[in-house]
Amino acid sequence: MRFSSLVERVAGRGSGAWAVHHEAVRRRAEGQDVVLLTVGDPDLPPPPAVLAAAADAIGRRQTGYSPIVGYPEVRAAIAERHARRAGVPCTADNVVVVPGAQAGLYCAMQCLAGPGDEVLAMEPLYATYQAVAGAAGATLATVPLRPERGFHPDLDELERAVTPRTRVLWVNSPHNPTGAVLDRGEMERICDIARRHDLWVLSDEVYQDLAYARPHLGPGALPGMAERTVTVSSISKSHALPGFRFGWIVGPAELARHLFNLMLCMLYGGPPFVQRAAIVALGNEFPEVEAMREAYLRRARLFVRAVSRAPGCRAAEPEGGMFVLLDVRGTGLGAEAFARRLLDREGVATLPADAFGPSAEGHLRVSLAAEDAVLADAAERIVRTAETLAREG
Ligand SMILES: Cc1ncc(COP(=O)(O)O)c(C=O)c1O
């Protein structure tokens, strides 16, 4: 039987780099002692009040259908939060609720770009971006984020990459996998490019609560940008609730109306008890959220310091997010070979970061979703691996 061309367009690039992760998961399932530092699944506990709100809503049988783009109360809570943080007007009419930021990126892209259009992003980039653009029928073009610039963009190069077919500039700050947080000057420049070339800015802000080096600033906060900015975020990382699949899109009201139509035929609303819990999550400032931010930063510092003794390896403190990039180029091994050796000899699984794009070649992405002691021990094992490699010459 034949399938539509969509099946090709959503197929991943099949990077070999994920093989290390899959092997580690397999070994773990067999009962082997493997430290998994590959994925960004938060290990810290979510705020109990949010869990209680979900349980309470289930207890009250809030299990029926819900409005297609979310309850007005939850959309109002998101709008109020966005307005407060970005310092711009925002109402429930600008907000739609989606099952996680991933679905938000997918739904937004379906409405922003199509066949013949180009989407411009920076690589390394989050693993799903290629397929999200492809599913819409658009082509993903990338400019490199180079290690020697701390993985911050060369904005002249970004502007040179804009073509008459470019429709969307895709930004992600704090950035996965590099941890870079764009500064105000960079964001202003990106918005200026978008205005002059009449582009949408699609802003993936899933790590917005995990900015360390400088405060998070989204494009939607800058003057004249509300009409062309689409902000996507979720409670997956901020509240350690990826399993709730609760995210949102903030954008022009006209976009929200198009999203209603898309979501009507695609999702038909989300779980009401999750939305009830989200009202609690977004309507309060929980100490747990701040504690998570502090924990990831503490772990990043601890890991970077501990791993600094590894010959041929370098790691910089991330500016945001929940990963550290470890540069292993000085060890003489490529990232995948190093990651395999680390898994085989020391039982530590990390992700070769070139899975996210060639500019991260020679780097490993290390997830900080593990306790301090686990990360310290993993760093020791990395040091041992690098020392052995140095002795072997
Ligand atoms: C950059 C980036 N965007 C989007 C997502 C998806 O987040 P969500 O769980 O809200 O769908 C992730 C998840 O790790 C991510 O790292």
User: Which assembly state applies to the chains in this document?
Assistant: single chain
Q: Radius of gyration in whole Å, from Cα?
A: 21 Å
Summed over residues and divided by their number, the pLDDT gives a mean of 96
- What is the percent of helical residues? 40-55%
The proportion of strand residues reads 5-15%
Uncertain segments: none
Q: How are strands sequenced across the largest beta sheet?
A: 2-8-7-6-5-3-4
SSE series: HHEHHEHEHEHEHEEEHHHEEHEEEH
Written description of the protein model:
- By secondary structure, the chain is of the alpha/beta class.
- It contains 13 helices and 13 strands.
- A 7-stranded mixed beta sheet has the order 2-8-7-6-5-3-4, with helices on both faces. The chain has a 4-stranded antiparallel beta sheet with strand order 9-10-13-12.
- A hairpin with a 7-residue loop joins strand 9 (314-315) and strand 10.
- The model has no long low-confidence stretch (mean pLDDT 96).
- It binds pyridoxal-5'-phosphate.
- The site of pyridoxal-5'-phosphate has 13 residues, from helix 5.
